[in-house]
Design a protein that fits this description.
The chain is an alpha+beta fold. The chain folds into two domains: 4-143, K homology (KH) domain (GMP Synthetase, Chain A, domain 3, 2-Layer Sandwich); 144-250, R3H-like domain (Ribosomal Protein S8, Chain: A, domain 1, 2-Layer Sandwich). The protein contains five helices and nine strands, in the order βαββαββαβαβαββ. The chain has a three-stranded antiparallel sheet with strand order 1-3-2, covered by helices on one side. The relative contact order is 0.10.
Length: 250
Amino acid sequence: MTESLEVTAKTAEEAIELALKQLGAQREDVVIEVISKGKTGILGFGSEPARVRVVRLDPTQTLAKEAKEVVDKLLVHMKVNAIASIGPPPQDSLSSIAINVEGEDSGLLIGRRGETLQALQFIVASLLSHTKGEGVRVHVDVEHYKDRRRAALQKLAQNMAERVSSSGRPMTLEPMPPAERRIIHMTLANDRRVTTQSVGDREGRKVTILPRRGSSGTGPSGARLSDGPQTLPQEKSPQPPEDYDQEPAD
């Protein structure tokens, strides 16, 4: 039976240390999930303790340990003061392994629009794949940056879909990496008002949101607006691409 503990403490790190002590385990032996980081409150009022769930890894789950070791070594070589932990992979990821990094210097690992973080993830996956002789998918996050970015992109997609539906005109977002374009596509995949497609090349590739044919967008005078430029052919909203984290393109 898998050993699991939920522990509360003043901070998430203190709760993790307590759980590890109770389990008699090291970080590389467990999966750590931060349920709540807690709240400090004001003058003691409104404060809440941090809560974490720590689950001991099955002895056969060696790949997660190896992934953490790779990240640990990279952090040392990069002289970054941060701690890596094994965590549960996101529900929308095909990765079976997730490594979370937190610490004083962890912000250095994110980079502009998450580009440094994506490069770190690629390196970790490549090193593991080379060692194993087969493709390995791994999800690497820093201070839950991807969670926050995903929420922001989902909100952006919904807001832009509302504008496109109201105006009847297509709108194009700023250039994004493949994983972020996929979030836009997936967020609007079941929206009956709009459809999405990617346009452009390489670093300039971006998502265009278009009104579906027959949508109710109208102009200021009530006249029907065009479904979009003829140079942007209509496409059905995409089916879920192969992998949120690793896909080279959407």
